[in-house]
Amino acid sequence: AEKAIQLGLASEILRSTAGLLGRFGVDIFFVISGFIMAYTTHTMQAGWPAMRSFFLFSLIRIVPLYWLFTSLMVALLLVVPQLFRELTWDITHIAASYGFIPVTNPMGGSSPILGVGWTLNYEMYFYLVFALTLLLRPASGRLWALLILLGSSVAAGLVITPSSPWLQQLTSPLLLEFASGVTAFHALCRAQHWQK
User: What are the pLDDT digits (tens) for 22-50?
Assistant: First the structure.
């Protein structure tokens, strides 16, 4: 009986943890993404070559596969539109989906044609902002520029409450999750430096 209770308790803990991780999965992804961006660039010399290299590498990793799946969705929408209850043919929505630009879609939401692509809209914006910080030296200057830019844009969003999806993204508190990942990397580097 005791083993059954322990197994039941363990099962409940695992189920609760999985639900919690599922609910916060995107948040965790954004934090990890910011951390990895800082880690992979921390030894780069500031300047245009670093910025260009980082941004092009990011594009090469994301764009081809995303465009492939977006194109499949567009083809299916064109050939068998009855498969989609919530998608309609809209050239602005389709073009914005390819461009990682959040717009109001025909259903009134802001998701791209490939629904999960909303996270990549944030990723691409953060890649752009992060790439621009690679023009700055030292690395701590990059961090402060990032924190000031993203923090002030989120603060502005709290004051003005933007209605367009594009401005909502530029002022979303989700941007602070990326910044948290970058900050965590810098804090870890500083802690390791102090231990030496």
Answer: 567 889 999 999 999 999 998 888 899 99
| CA 111 to the chain's CA centroid | 14
What does the alpha-carbon distance between residue 86 and residue 84 come to, in Å, rounded to a whole number?
Answer: 6
For 136-168, b where at least 16 C-beta lie within 10 A, e where not — what string?
Answer: beebeebbeebbeebeebbeebeeeeeeebbbe
Asked whether 171 and 156 are in contact (CB, 8 A), the reply is yes
The model's pTM: 0.82
Residues in CB range of 145: below 8 A, 6 or more apart: 133, 136
Residue showing tokens 């752009």:
128
Contact between 98 and 70 under an 8 Å Cβ cutoff? The reply is yes
Amino acid at 100: F
**Could you tell me which of 73, 130, 62 has the C-alpha nearest to residue 100?**
62
Question: Which pair of tokens denotes residue 25?
Answer: 């999965």
**158's tokens:** 């709290």
In whole angstroms, give the CA distance from residue 162 to residue 136: 30
User: 159-194, pLDDT tens digit by residue?
Assistant: 998 989 999 999 999 999 999 999 999 999 888 776
